[in-house]
Each structure stands twice: as structure tokens, then as C-alpha cells.
TrEMBL record:
It comes from the Bacteria. The lineage of its organism: Bacteria, Bacillati, Actinomycetota, Actinomycetes, Kitasatosporales. Keywords: Fatty acid metabolism, Iron, Lipid metabolism, Membrane, Oxidoreductase, Transmembrane, Transmembrane helix. One of its GO terms (molecular function) is oxidoreductase activity, acting on paired donors, with oxidation of a pair of donors resulting in the reduction of molecular oxygen to two molecules of water. Signal peptide: none annotated. Residues 72-281 form the Fatty acid desaturase domain. GO terms for biological process: fatty acid metabolic process. This is Acyl-CoA desaturase. It is found in: Membrane. It is a multi-pass membrane protein. CDD domains: Delta9-FADS-like. GO terms for cellular component: membrane. The chain crosses the membrane at residues 37-61, 67-85, 188-211. Residues 1-25 are annotated as: Disordered.
Length: 322
């Protein structure tokens, strides 16, 4: 959803830029040095923990308690991104009521991948210009030679996040900017980040009744979990636009990467997604595991989701390659 050139949001200035009272995220449309430093810290610190995970597990072991906390937090927040941020808020693959809308926005924010409105705006712009000029994170940005693609993979994976030019939210996510619930949740991203990092430590401390239990749960359930989820999510931008099977027609180079399917909660069936972006299910072929679609189905059965855009056989067949 985008605004036409002559449209202006209510309460906006004539140039189309939103006034401060309707800004969906803290900060403007340009990323300054303090934001870049904070972003680098939130990427580097969990990544260092991820690198240390193997030697830590080898030296001190990985207990069942920490494994359970880390796994639960991983798949909770992963589905917050895939079901909430992506399939609901970005593509409107299904409709829901206010309570579930708020819950999905908060749980998605716990993934520490950015405020919901910022995330949605970036992703909608990606779909508008996918693998062409204007795409925020195409791995083909620098060309198709091996050196250019390697440089492009780095850009698509994480380099693009440090670009000073930010996607205009009032153009690419005006519906969310105008939603007072989502605007408030987006502006409180710092709070959800804090909770996301502290909840595993709190659970570990209470379950073990020890500071050591809190520290190990923080390491595995907060730092390692955040880093792993970040790089799996970013791999959809980089790897899934460089390699993979392409059984469906799309305007870009999106591909299906099977070995990322479980960890990405079904998002790595990326070719069908770009062939049919509003579909609630991405893994539509036999054997394609898509846990996000399963959760949406449970929402529908419970009466929490309605007007779900399930791809039927005719719709799938129409998008198949010859």
C-alpha cells in the first residue's frame, strides 16, 4: 500500500512528510551516527555470543533448561516476525481483531529486528523494486560477476541496514502510521528490546533459583537466540535471492532454499512468496514445511483470523513455470 504523489496523510505537512505527532518511530528518515553505533552493537554483541556458542557448549555443556528457554524464545519471536510483521502487517494475508494485532506487533518486536512500522516499510519497498534499482537489499545490486555478487550478498545480508537513507514510512506504510496502537508499539521498540533480552534470564533464574541459571539463560536464550534469528532472517534477503529453485514465475530472482525452511518458519519458500506476495502460505508444494501457515490456520480455526488468503490449486498452477 502506497500513497499517490498528490496524496497527503491527515496531519501531514504539504510536502507529505508526517508531523512529529504521527511519526511511527523515534528519529527521522535519515540514520545518524548514534543510530549506526547502536545498530552495530546490537549486531556485533549477539554475533560474538553465537561464535562463542560452540566452545561454550563444548567446555561447560548446554543444559536442557537453557535449550528449552532458547528454543521457545526463538520460535516465539520468529513467528512474531513471519506471521505478524510479514504476512499480516506487510502483506495483509489475513485480517484479525485488535487484541491479536497488538500481540503480534509486540511479539514481533521481541525479535529485535526493528520497530514494526520501519520493518514493514522496508519490506514493502523491497517488493516494489525487488532485485531492481530501488530495492533496499538486493544481492544483485553491484552486478552479476562473482566478486560483485559476493559484495552484493554482504550488502543484502546486513550492509543495507547502515544506509543513512531510510525508507519513508509515510509513503510505504501509511496504514500503520495512522494506526495509533501500532504507532505506539513501534515507538516503544526500546522497551520490547529490553524485555526480549531480560525475559530468558528471568526465566532461567526462577527455574534454577540461582544467578548462574540467569546468566546461562541470558547467554543462550537472549544473545545466541537473537543472533541466530537475525542471520536466518537476513539470509532470506541474501541467500534466497541468489540461489535456490524457482518453480514459480516472479519478476525477480527469489528462490526456494529448503535447508532454511524450519529455522525460518517457512519463509525460505521464497519463490512462491514473490510470485504471490499476499498468500498466507509460502510452502505450497508437497513436503514444504511452513509452520507460519500452520499457526495462521490455527488462528482461523479459533476464530481469531478471517479472510485468510489461502492459495488454491488453480492459483498455484497459474504461477507455475512452464
Amino acid at each position: 500500500m502506497t500513497l499517490q504523489a498528490d496524496e497527503v496523510l491527515p496531519g501531514s505537512r504539504p510536502d507529505g512528510k508526517p508531523n512529529s505527532q504521527i511519526s511511527a518511530t523515534l528519529g527521522g528518515e535519515k540514520q545518524g551516527l548514534p543510530e549506526r553505533i547502536a545498530l552495530a552493537a546490537f549486531i556485533a554483541i549477539p554475533f560474538l555470543a553465537l561464535l562463542a556458542a560452540a566452545p561454550v557448549a563444548w567446555g561447560w555443556g548446554l543444559g536442557w533448561r537453557d535449550l528449552a528457554i532458547g528454543t521457545a524464545m526463538y520460535f516465539l519471536t520468529c513467528h512474531g516476525i513471519t506471521v505478524g510483521y510479514h504476512r499480516h502487517f506487510t502483506h495483509r494475508a489475513f485480517k484479525t481483531g485488535r487484541v491479536l494485532k497488538i500481540v503480534m506487533a509486540v511479539v514481533g518486536s521481541l525479535a529485535v529486528e526493528g520497530p514494526v512500522v520501519r520493518w514493514v516499510a522496508d519490506h514493502r519497498k523491497h517488493h516494489k523494486f525487488s532485485d531492481r534499482d530501488g530495492d533496499p537489499h538486493s544481492p544483485w545490486r553491484y552486478g552479476e560477476s562473482v566478486p560483485a555478487l559476493l559484495k552484493g550478498l554482504w550488502w543484502a545480508h546486513m550492509g543495507w541496514m547502515f544506509d543513512s537513507e531510510q525508507t519513508p514510512q509515510h509513503i510505504y506504510a501509511p496504514d500503520l502510521v495512522k494506526d495509533s496502537d501500532i504507532r505506539a508499539i513501534s515507538r516503544l521498540f526500546w522497551l520490547w528490546t529490553t524485555l526480549s533480552l531480560l525475559l530468558p534470564a528471568l526465566a532461567g533464574g526462577l527455574l534454577s533459583w540461582s544467578w548462574q541459571g540467569a546468566v546461562t539463560a541470558f547467554f543462550w536464550g537472549s544473545l545466541v537466540r537473537v543472533a541466530l534469528l537475525h542471520h536466518v532472517t537476513w539470509s532470506i534477503n541474501s541467500i534466497c535471492h541468489a540461489v535456490g529453485s524457482r518453480p514459480f514465475r516472479s519478476r525477480d530472482k527469489s528462490g526456494n532454499v529448503w535447508w532454511l525452511a524450519v529455522l525460518s518458519c517457512g519463509e525460505s519458500w521464497h519463490n512462491l512468496h514473490h510470485a504471490d506476495p499476499t498468500a498466507a502460505r509460502h510452502g505450497v508444494l508437497r513436503g514444504q514445511v511452513d509452520s507460519s501457515a500452520r499457526i495462521i490456520r490455527w488462528f482461523e480455526l479459533a476464530g481469531w483470523a478471517r479472510e485468510v488468503r489461502w492459495p488454491d490449486a488453480a492459483r498455484i498452477a497459474a504461477r507455475r513455470t512452464a
